[in-house]
Design goal:
Elements lengths: L5 H6 L3 H37 L6 H28 L5 H4 L6 H13 L4 E9 L3 E8 L5 E7 L6 H9 L11 E5 L6 E5 L4 E2 H8 L4 H20 L12 E3 L5 E3 L14 H10 L2 H5 L7 H21 L9 H11 L2 H8 L18 H7 L11 H12 L8 H12 L3 H12 L9 H5 L1 H13 L5 H8 L9 H18 L5 H18 L3
Antiparallel strand pairs: 1-2, 2-3, 3-5, 4-5, 6-7, 7-8
Length: 518
Amino acid sequence: MAEKNIENLIANGKLAEAFSQFAEFLKLCELERQELAQNKSRYAFMENQVNAATVGSEANIERNRIRMSFQTQLDDFRREVMSVYFDMTDREKIFKSFENRDTIVHEILDLRLRPKQYMREQQMIEGNSSIVYRLLNVDTQRHAIALVLKTGELEGDTKSEILQLADLRHRNVIKLLDQDLNTYPYFVITEYVHGTTLPDAIAKTGPRPAAQAVDWLYQLADALDYLRHKRILHTNMRPSKIYIDDEWQIMISPFDLHRVTTGEHSFNRYLDVCRYGSPELLRQDGRGLDLNAMCASDQYSLGLLGFKMLTGKDLFEGETVYEILESRKKFTKADYRRAKFNQLPKETFDLKISASKNLVGVMQQLLQENPAERYRDLHQLLRALHPFTRADIPRSSPARQSYRRSMAVNKSLIRDFYQAFTAQHTPAQSDFSQLGKQRQSAMLQMAVDVLLDIDEKGDLLKSIAGSNNHSKYQTADFSLFLDVLIATIQKNDPEWTESEAAEWQTIREKALTLLETR
């Protein structure tokens, strides 16, 4: 197309041809006015409906569609018209320049996401191996995540490993939805987890009850066992890479992206290996174990994660590598080891098949220094954990048992609660964006967890109520919130009695007393 480049024609003294090409360019600009007028008309019509209050949340859907249509028009014009008549700099070369990197990544990413019907919403984080963006699919209105790989070259084996992840189907494994691994910059699209991370959940709700901790450990072990049978080596068993979704289920990513790039560990990753890795993984500097050895290593990591869930603390304490390694040395001593296991909760489970037991025995076997003394494999661990996931806890409070029963009976309990609450408290409807509404379940479950342990977690409740999103609410608002919550649980609990009703009312009164002093 060099013969149509206006700047080249001027530089070569071909003014008549330059004038002609510029006139042709202006004609094409006039044609763009028609599509622009259509988009402007759609936008004006939608705004009139919004002002007349004749549309609700569907206005956001239409706004996103108009936005994508307009962006597509601009991209097509720049590619099909501007690049023909003017000298357009090669964006992929600019990408390698640090100063312009973000701008060019965004331009290329937007261009290649559009045919897939995705729109980039926000950059979330940047790690050593990828840049993470939140996306929105304009057709389904579902969010997703784009991981842009920070590598200039993608080896054939690496590409095959990533494509293998497209076949994974497990409730607790984040799904690969789409990918573009043919052109630099490379990226993959995964499902978006509407929830939080394990460290954030523990920070906001405190140590987890034994019943929930064992559920999470079972889910983690099952996901790892599934990946093992798919011959996928997972090396990210650390809290910051474990997510809790809107149904309060564990989610892990099968991606280990540091291996896609340089293969080098960051210092923070090495700290995590020191804190959450097995002795054999630490001896190998976080790498070099085969699939079977890694599965034995994962058992030790699961024991460390279980300790954090149950106590809210890391088993190996310290902020520096030296402090963590010193803590690990102490754990090899019998007295120190016994003292640490004594910190675990003493809740007992009625396993039906034998006398009541607690989780300490499982934790002790997971945290054996010698891999041969742990469970034979992950499947054997699952068999050991499974009875705990189905057992009653005789000493568990009536309110906690009631909540667990109602959640088991109605998987849409949280949605039903919010519908009932906002029907009686209409101002609350405007407090949640579309994304916020999808996060309601995780948010409420964190709050309920704190309520159920109100005697020990009153400060956490005040922290939640005093956050930016909740500080404007008065005691009367929280009173209605609690009344609707209790009514929703009562409606869904098939074994509701006066005992459950009395304890929930006690929790309500304690919560309101605390909230009055926030």
